């Protein structure tokens, strides 16, 4: 990206007025009609249009699977978005591997409401208020150990809290939540036991 000490207008983004997100030497832009654009350094494949170039100063269109309408974007070390149907897409280079193009994540059993990325870690909140995490860690994923998680993994030790929002820093995660009724918590725990009993899905 261009280095500057004063604000400047980003070219070719007339229809972008929904969201912006700044990551590791790159940025994402969401247009009114749910399209994603990206600009910046592509060293970690985080731009999302494939390999073969290092940097783009001008925002380029990122083709999400089957032209799905996107409702949220997130930039960190890599990139992510959530569609209107609650689908999660990741692209870039991380602990989960390499994906130079947006890749639909199948490991989360419920619709995704929001996503946030940090360094080599990420968190989503699903429609039931359950937070899912992945990435390298030294305890910041809050799953009871310090082992990395290649695939999204649910945080089940929230002490009866229903997560409404979750945000990543570079190496930490913050969640905002409400108390959840015991019967709802039991449903979540039962759902997780059922999920674990099935064969794991890979993306």
Task: Provide keyphrases for this structure.
1 helix; mainly beta; globular; four-stranded antiparallel β-sheet; 203 residues
Describe this structure in words.
This protein has 203 residues and is mainly beta. It has one helix spanning 182-197; strands at 19-22, 26-30, 36-41, 55-62, 70-75, 79-83, 88-94, 97-104, 112-117, 121-126, 131-135, 149-154, 161-168, 173-179. The strands form 4 sheets. The protein has a 4-stranded antiparallel beta sheet with strand order 1-2-3-4, with no helix packed on it. Strands 5-6-7-8 form a 4-stranded antiparallel beta sheet, with no helix packed on it. The longest helix has 16 residues, at 182-197.
- The radius of gyration is 17 Å
Query: How far apart, in Å, are the first and last alpha carbons?
Result: 31 Å
Identify the overall geometry. globular
Helical segment tally? 1
In the sheet with the most strands, the strands line up as: 1-2-3-4
N-to-C SSE series? EEEEEEEEEEEEEEH
User: Strand pairing plus helix content: what structural class?
Assistant: mainly beta
Could you estimate the helical fraction of the residues in percent? under 10%
Strand content: 35-45%
Detail the topology: elements first, then pairings.
Elements: E1 19-22, E2 26-30, E3 36-41, E4 55-62, E5 70-75, E6 79-83, E7 88-94, E8 97-104, E9 112-117, E10 121-126, E11 131-135, E12 149-154, E13 161-168, E14 173-179, H1 182-197
Antiparallel strand pairs: 1-2, 2-3, 3-4, 5-6, 6-7, 7-8, 9-10, 10-11, 11-12, 13-14
């Amino acid at each position: 990206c261009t280095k500057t000490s004063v604000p400047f207008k980003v070219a070719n983004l007339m229809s972008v007025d929904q969201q912006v997100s700044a990551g590791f030497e790159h940025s994402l832009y969401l247009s009114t009609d749910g399209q994603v654009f990206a600009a910046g350094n592509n060293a970690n494949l985080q731009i999302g249009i494939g390999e073969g170039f290092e940097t783009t100063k001008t925002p380029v269109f990122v083709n999400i699977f089957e032209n799905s309408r996107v409702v949220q974007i997130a930039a960190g070390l890599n990139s992510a978005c959530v569609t209107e149907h609650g689908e999660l897409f990741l692209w870039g280079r991380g602990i989960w591997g390499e994906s130079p193009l947006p890749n639909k994540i199948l490991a989360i059993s419920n619709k995704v409401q929001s996503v946030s990325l940090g360094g080599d870690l990420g968190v989503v909140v699903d429609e039931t208020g359950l937070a899912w995490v992945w990435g390298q860690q030294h305890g910041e994923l809050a799953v009871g150990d310090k082992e990395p998680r290649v695939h999204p993994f649910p945080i089940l030790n929230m002490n009866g809290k229903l997560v409404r929002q979750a945000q990543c820093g570079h190496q930490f995660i913050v969640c905002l939540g409400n108390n959840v009724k015991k019967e709802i918590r039991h449903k979540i725990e039962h759902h997780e036991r059922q999920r674990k009993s099935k064969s794991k899905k890979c993306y």
